[in-house]
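Notes to self, MFS general substrate transporter:
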Amino acid sequence: ICAGGIFTFPLMSPALAQHLKLTQPQLTTIVLAGMVGQYPFAAVVGKVIDRYGPWACSLVASLLFSSAFGLFSLEISKTPDDISQPSLSSFERLTILFFIGGLGTVFSYFSALFAASKNFPEYIGLASGATMALFGLSPLFLSFLASAFFTTPETGLDVSHYLTCLAILAGVVNFFGALTMGTPQTLAQKAQEDADTEQPDEHTQLLPGKVSTATGDVVPVEEDGTVLDLLKDVHFGALIAVALLVCGVCEMIMSNMGTIVLSLPSYSRSQSQIPGIQEVGTDSATSTQVRLLSLSNTISRLVVGPLADFVSPVASYLPNGNRQFLRKHHISRVAFLALASILLAATFLATELRVRTQQDLWILSVGTGITYGTTFTSGLNLLPCSIISSIWGLKNMARNFGIVSYAPFVGTPLFSYLYAFVAADHAPNGGVCEGVTCWELTFWVSAGAALVALGVSSFLWRRWKGKL
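result:
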């Protein structure tokens, strides 16, 4: 719950634009550095957890968070208020520091997620879901800290002191995690030990595999396949494509919500003329949208997770390496990815047609939050215990999960820079863009991307019907 500091950047972006005179492409670059910083070493982090355990990653996260947020705070505090042009060297340092903060996020998140799933293998859905729910609440929790202790009506958010608080809080919490988090042997290791000690007979399988609920046949699983073998699988590529499109679009909204709020008036012109109606400050409006994103993200995970476990139970592992479903399988888990894509497309359509003031942005925030939470719960963040483990085995699940995590590394910058340059093209004299033209084209393109993700998800749904 203390690991989501990079997701509160929308709270900081208005102050950074005013104090440091940063342009929209520069703000986008900084937040993108944090968002994509989660992904380049995801497979490496997964491999470290598989070999050494989550405590090591939690220790690294403590060091990364403390240094990134602490130095970011120092960079802001030493910049004078009367500068007329942004400092290129300062911008570059802030970008590097936020990248380090994003890297700390993946170390922290993976350590908690896999500590939970490996310590409670019999309740892996609940353990993983609870961990992800707390992570989803992190921006909400941290935004409350920012509003309650570091924001005043006169000056807005005190970014420097807020980041100092993040450096101390996240550093201490993750250091405590390094002292306490360990894991027993994984189910895969236990199954392998059982298989090694079991004496073969005429009923012993020559190749371990998985049981299909559709036919009952055993299908071999290439758990020892190389990364190249995995990338050659068209189904794995399709899953990466869904992650790239859906996560890329959602994270573009999450990272740029601050300037999306700035682009719109607080109330419509007719409302502002009504006595008693007062405009809401930008900091307050942005904080509200961040909280809506966080709440809808978390609630969707809490609802969709148990629902997916009930209608799409994951395969259990037998001592000989086979997989079977202990409860009736009603629908493929990939169906939830398709439903999330439909919701995302509908969200952008509603935003284009109805959003004209800051108060209307709840449509975008709630829709994006539900889509992100549904995708990560039913598919991409429960992959270690569902799609990836069911299709490609449990032995290298953290490595395979890390590879899929590279998809937003491409998708998030792609859509975020589309937003940034479209907004900059409509901004007067390099200032802050105002009006729906700031994001109109970007959101139409995003709606099209959601429909493409729907088509790819439907393809996987048909191919994996009855298997997960």
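- The beta strands are 151-152, 156-157, 209-211, 218-220, 316-317, 323-324.
- The CA atoms of residues 30 and 95 lie 4 Å apart.
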